[in-house]
Amino acid sequence: MKVAIVGSGYVGLVTGTCFAEVGIDVTCVDIDRKKIENLQNGIIPIYEPGLEEMVHRNMKKDRLHFTTSIAEALEDCEVIFSAVGTPPDEDGSADLKYVLSVARDCGRFMKNYLLIVTKSTVPVGTADKVRKVVAEELKSRSVSIDFDVASNPEFLKEGAAIDDFLKPDRIVVGCDSQRAEELMKALYKPFTLNGHPVIFMDITSAEMTKYAANSMLATKISFMNDMANLCEIVGADINMVRRGIGSDSRIGNKFIYPGVGYGGSCFPKDVKALIHTADEFKYNLRVLKAVEAVNDDQKEVLYNKFELHYKGDLRGKTVALWGLSFKPQTDDMREAPSLKIIKKLLEAGVKVKAYDPVAMSEAKRILGDSIYYAPDQYDALIDADCLMLVTEWPEFKFPNFNIVNKLLKAPVIFDGRNIYEIPEMKRKGFIYYCIGVNTSR
User: Fold this and answer.
1) CATH superfamily name and code, 2-201
2) Would residue 175 show up in a list of annotated catalytic residues for this protein?
3) How much is the pTM?
């Protein structure tokens, strides 16, 4: 089977590479000529553990190819995945111009039956728009070629995307023809040998499933952050509360860790898009609007603790900031809490010395020379008034606290991810602030 993947960003590249890994002939397409040239030379545009080695292996075995020509990719192709971006418009809706551009190109260049699968996160009704655009292009060519449209939302976690794709806990497919269903069953058969099923449903439900899943996870995060803020006020410990509720199987222990808010390419965008969809249908998604508001406020919590500690006397202070990416194991800084924190610090006249294991280049692209980029985590501490931990990279979990204490001007730590133990920090002489525990009591 030959498969084409349009869009060689995070989702498209992981999807194409993992299909190639099980022996499928894959061609990845992107309009970014430089990106394709780099990929052809084995240069990967994103950081994802295990991806680079897998790309090189499958290119060497001639199963993974890269091109800027969708017409070339469609030669003898049965299935094409649309994995292009759906950036949010100013009103929060998903911009479908790239998705519909792929549909238009399919209609222009397809020669035989084609299954067009939307992998991008798209709002309800997108499949109908794709079908209409393809039909219009075929009509303009005066040809009649059968095609199907399907929805196959991705559920990849950045930092664990390879395992998520190769060993999925579920695969969701929305389609409305037997031919499309059989093709998708055959395509995903190698990935269902672990017993987890392909869940077939109507296309509208599949489109909604992705948004509902991400919004549910975002809700859990914002709920816990709301509880953490209340715990600080009433004198409870959110870490104890988390353990208490996480032992309930109905709640579970995932996505209930308090912190400085969620970020990344999915949660912020998808929550906004689902709210916009509901508004279009005159339905008020009250819970999700609160989720979004709580998350926006939570990104300022660490800065507020910093401001309170120094009683508003911030100008001229220097902050060492550990972690820039929105989560560990990725260089993705889209909607990262670090960006909002840094913005607030700079506006207050504070100097920022930052370090991240992999996101430094991306940070410099976004922030330019407005901050100092430390070559390692300890260099960031030199002459800093305090340490702020924003991203819980593993290497930050067990630092040499004697060195930390020696390099900082004062032993003050603001922990935005609760990765250190309060009693230990106090024994080591640190003034320690975290999320959801009033450590000044």
Assistant:
1) NAD(P)-binding Rossmann-like Domain (3.40.50.720)
2) no
3) 0.90
